[in-house]
Structure formats: structure tokens, C-alpha cells
From TrEMBL:
Keywords: Cell outer membrane, Membrane, Signal, Transmembrane, Transmembrane beta strand. InterPro entries: OMPP1/FadL/TodX. It holds the Pfam family Toluene_X. It is a multi-pass membrane protein. Belongs to the OmpP1/FadL family. It comes from Hymenobacter persicinus. It is found in: Cell outer membrane. This is Long-chain fatty acid transporter. GO terms for cellular component: cell outer membrane. Gene3D superfamilies: Outer membrane protein transport protein (OMPP1/FadL/TodX) (2.40.160.60).
Length: 421
């Protein structure tokens, strides 16, 4: 039946550099995950720590890899994540909608059993990202017009079967990220006077996991993904269409150096084969967002030039996920999932780069098996974020926002192909 069943308006010319810090902080503070990293896992609502009927287990719990059968498995697919946010100004009562811009992503997983005890695998996926595009004339244009982050994680993995019921595994993570940030210089009436920041960075981490079966029908998993710090060493700050009178205040371009972080996560999951055809999974995840207390950016070639530090005080956040899978026939398997993701962002730190709220989600998925070794997998997830209201506070230079209410909805879709040989 299954190909691999187990056996986030300034007038001081130096201050715009702090905006990029704020943007990254809001983005990396929560809600910027691009969705569960496979079509099958998406259909299960992301409850995947003890779910081993999907090669995405290499990413979610490397300890389970050795529990797959002796075949070689490959899973490849595409993801699309679309976040739609509306903003209603507190004083202006003006409504602004983000432009629709799906964030593309994808995944590639492969595994091979070296022998009865040891298996190796490779995970290539895009677990984090966002693409925020506000109208160029919206009231928060001096905070942000566009903000984008793309990431790519590569994880070679090895797993060892201790016995028929328990296995452990570990993976080395190399991460790459690319960012773009643009906002209008608020001291000018012309809307095309903008600052744009771009950069790429890389970092390393690790992923470890344990998988076990306590009975024929019940299994559990525990995994820990380490924090990853992406270091941007050769970024660029570019100013466009600055009036000639102020050209000396804004260099056409300057070097940008910074670090931005992604949190570690501890996950615990269970899977229960309720019947021969029905499997139910449950996950609890604690993400260590509290490490985002502040972030520092340096702009220019001289050390310490235009250094800006922004405080954020994020909090650790929990997520709960549950999924169900029903093998309707040899050809069709259906999935359903539900999730609740807690936001780590306090009300006083909401910014328009990526306004985040507690999210309640639901998902549906299906696999079509053309043979015991070949299937096409598809899934869709909808998430409803709680409305968030921000209040502009001019006394806090490190908290730059626009007074108003944000309403966010998130759509994620995935399509993949799984093959065993």
C-alpha cells in the first residue's frame, strides 16, 4: 500500500538601517515557516514526528529513517505558500491589502538502506520563507514596501536501528538564505525614493531524533533541530532616486553585515494504528524563539559604522498538530489534519513585514498509488490567524510600526511524487 511503510518613517539618514533589523526580526520571530515539508505531511496537518510513511521523516525525525524497509526511496515535490494580509489604519481608516505573491518552495528526499541496521538519507527542502508586498503608496510605506526571505536546507542523515523497536539518527544541516527588503524614505514626498537591502547568508546546524514502537499499533518519536544562524557578510544597501540636494547623506550603495537566526525546535509525536486502515498522529512542538532578544546590523566598510541594535523580546512558542490517514483502497489514501500554532510576537512588537498571530489550521490530502512503488501525493492547508492590532510608539525607536489592525490568512498547497526501487 505505501511505497515505504516500516516492517517584522524616519528622518535621520542613519536610522533607515535599523529598519532592516526590524524587518528581519519580525520575519524571524514567528509565522514564517513555509508549511509542512511534503505533500503527505501537509495533508496530515504537519503531525510527522512519529509518522514514517513519508520520506520527510528525514527532516522531521532522522531517528526513524532506519525503520524504513530495505528499498531505495525517492520523494520530490513542489510547495506554494501564499500569505494574504489586510491592514486597517487606526487613525486614517484606510484599508490596504498585500499583493498576492505565492512563495514557491520544494523538497527532495532520498534514502538507502546500507544493511539491516544502517540507513542513510538526504533532505533538501525550503522550510522558512516569506514574501510581503504592500502597495507602494500605503500608509506604512516608510516602514516596508516589500520584504522577502528564501531559505534552502540541505541535510545528509544517517540512522541506526538498535533493535526492531528502536532506532536513532542524526543529520548535519547546511542552510542558505537570501533576503530582499525595500521601504520608502519617509522624509520625501516622492514615493520612488526608496532604500533597498539585499544579501545572502549561510549557516550550519544539526538534527537528531529517536523513534520507538511500544506495541504493534503504537509508536512515538522525539526530535530536536538545532538553531541555525545565517551570517550575511557581503550584503548591500542601495538608495534609489534620492534628490541631489541630499545625495551626500545617502551613499549610492554600502556594504551590509549582520546575522539573523532561526530557532531550534523540540518535537514529540505519537502515531496510533487505530485499525488496519486508519492511522492517527499527534505532535507537540516547542520552538525556541526567545533567543531573539536583539539583533545588530553594521553598514559600511569601516568596523562599527552605522551600527544599530533593535530589541524584540520574543517568547518561546508551542504548536499542536493532529492528523489522520485512511487507506480507502489499494489505489487511494486520504488524509486530514488540524493544527494550532502559537505566535511568539507580543502585541507591542507587531510590524507589517510579517504580522503574525495565533494560527488555527486545517488540511486535506490524498495519495494515488499507480503501483505499490509509485504514488502521486497532493495536499492543501488553510490557516486563519487571529487579528492583531499594533500601536505606533514614537518613544520606542526600536519598535517601528504603523497603528492599525492586521488580518492574515495563509494558504499552502503541495504536489509530489514518491517512488521506490
Amino acid at each position: 500500500m505505501f511505497p515505504y511503510c516500516p516492517k517584522t518613517r524616519l528622518h535621520d539618514p542613519s536610522l533607515p538601517f535599523s529598519w532592516i533589523a526590524l524587518s528581519f526580526l519580525s520575519a524571524s520571530a514567528g509565522g514564517f515557516q513555509s508549511g509542512p515539508q511534503s505533500a503527505r505531511t501537509l495533508g496530515m496537518g504537519g503531525a510527522s514526528t512519529a509518522y514514517i510513511r513519508d520520506l520527510a521523516v528525514i527532516y522531521y525525525n532522522p531517528g526513524a529513517l532506519a525503520q524504513l524497509d530495505s528499498l531505495t526511496h525517492v520523494s520530490v515535490g513542489g510547495l506554494a505558500n501564499m500569505r494574504r494580509t489586510s491592514f486597517l489604519g487606526t487613525d486614517s481608516r484606510r484599508l490596504a491589502d498585500q499583493e498576492l505573491s505565492p512563495l514557491p518552495g520544494g523538497y527532495l528526499y532520498a534514502s538507502h538502506a546500507i544493511n539491516d541496521k544502517v540507513s542513510v538519507g538526504l533532505s533538501v527542502n525550503t522550510p522558512y520563507g516569506y514574501d510581503t508586498r504592500w502597495p507602494s503608496d500605503w500608509e506604512g510605506r516608510s516602514v516596508v514596501q516589500q520584504a522577502r526571505l528564501n531559505t534552502l536546507f540541505v541535510q545528509p542523515t544517517a540512522s541506526v536501528k538498535i533493535n526492531e523497536n528502536f532506532s536513532i539518527g542524526a543529520g548535519f544541516v547546511y542552510a542558505f538564505g537570501k533576503m530582499t527588503q525595500q521601504y520608502a524614505l519617509g522624509q520625501y514626498d516622492a514615493r520612488d525614493v526608496t532604500a533597498q537591502f539585499t544579501g545572502t547568508g549561510s549557516g550550519m546546524g544539526y538534527n537528531v531524533g529517536l523513534y520507538g514502537k511500544t506495541a504493534d499499533k503504537l509508536a512515538f518519536g522525539i526530535s530536536y533541530r538545532s538553531p541555525v544562524t545565517l551570517k550575511v557578510k557581503d550584503g548591500k544597501a542601495t538608495y534609489n532616486n534620492v534628490p541631489a540636494l541630499d545625495a551626500g547623506r545617502y551613499a549610492p550603495s554600502a556594504k551590509l553585515r549582520t546575522e539573523f537566526n532561526m530557532p531550534g525546535a523540540l518535537a514529540v509525536g505519537m502515531a496510533d494504528n487505530v485499525t488496519k486502515k486508519l492511522l492517527v498522529t499527534f505532535d507537540f512542538t516547542l520552538s525556541a524563539w526567545s533567543r531573539y532578544d536583539s539583533l545588530t546590523f553594521n553598514v559600511g566598510d569601516a568596523p562599527g559604522l552605522a551600527t544599530r541594535t533593535a530589541g524584540r523580546r520574543y517568547e518561546d512558542a508551542m504548536a499542536f498538530r493532529v492528523g489522520g490517514e485512511y487507506a480507502y483502497s489499494d489505489m487511494f489514501t486520504f488524509r486530514v489534519g488540524a493544527s494550532y500554532d502559537e505566535t511568539p510576537i507580543r502585541d507591542e512588537f507587531i510590524t507589517p513585514d510579517l504580522p503574525d498571530g495565533n494560527k488555527l489550521g486545517g488540511s486535506l490530502g490524498v495519495s494515488v498509488f499507480f503501483s505499490p512503488k509509485l504514488s502521486v501525493d497532493a495536499a492543501y492547508q488553510y490557516e486563519h490567524a487571529a487579528d492583531r492590532t499594533s500601536r505606533a510608539n514614537q518613544s520606542k525607536s526600536s519598535v517601528n510600526s504603523v497603528g492599525g489592525t492586521y488580518r492574515t490568512r495563509v494558504h499552502t498547497a503541495a504536489l509530489g511524487l514518491s517512488y521506490s526501487f
